[in-house]
Write a structure and sequence with these properties.
Helix content is 37%, strand content 13%. By secondary structure, the protein is of the alpha+beta class. Among the domains are: 53 residues; 66 residues. The model has no long low-confidence stretch (mean pLDDT 85).
Length: 190
């Protein structure tokens, strides 16, 4: 009735729409801090905003605001050793000399892929009422790791190999000598 007396009709007020963020006036400040230190945490950014502008906001809201304004939070890590001159030279040589040759002869490439599993795989945690003990079953066995390794070539899988333990240097060398090299999985150019 209050709305009817004030406006003269019973229609509801408009709903939805975009609310203006409290962070919008600080857009330049926030984006500058992210540019200065691209791996700044949201609590650090919230603390800097509060110290500079006495505006207190939840770190999660800063994260959502940054995402809406085109910032992403995924980080691609690269080894810092790439900055060394000798490593840079080796990488440049790899890209200039070896990669073009590999593109011309893709049938000669073999990519090794390894995966493993354990025979005792079971969930470690569960839920039960407070005060009761959660009892569960686990498979019984020799509880070891099984490793599968194979060569991947442009025309298919080659030299599959399964061992009943985790991979180590000796097993890898045995695989290369007895499976991969024997089955024509790789060439020795000397």
């Amino acid at each position: 009735m209050k709305a009817y007396h004030a406006r003269g009709d019973l229609a509801p007020k408009p709903s939805g729409g975009r609310r203006h963020s409290r962070l919008e006036p600080h857009r330049v400040f926030l984006l500058a801090r992210v540019t200065e230190k691209n791996d700044i945490t949201m609590p650090e950014l919230a603390a800097k905003l509060e110290a500079a502008h006495t505006t207190r906001v939840d770190p999660a809201s800063i994260s959502r605001w940054l995402i809406r304004h085109g910032c992403r939070f995924k980080k691609t890590l690269q080894a810092s050793v790439q900055d060394r001159p000798d490593v840079r030279q080796a990488r440049d040589e790899w890209m200039a000399k070896r990669q073009p040759k590999m593109r011309l002869e893709p049938h000669g490439l073999v990519f090794l892929d390894e995966t493993g599993t354990t025979t005792k795989m079971t969930r470690l945690r569960g839920r039960c009422p407070k005060g009761e003990r959660l009892r569960a079953k686990a498979p019984f066995g020799h509880w070891k790791t099984q490793t599968f390794i194979a060569g991947l070539r442009c025309h298919g899988l080659t030299a599959p190999f399964v061992v009943d333990t985790a991979m180590n240097r000796h097993i890898f060398e045995t695989y290369v000598e007895t499976q991969l090299a024997r089955k024509g999985g790789c060439r020795h150019d000397g």
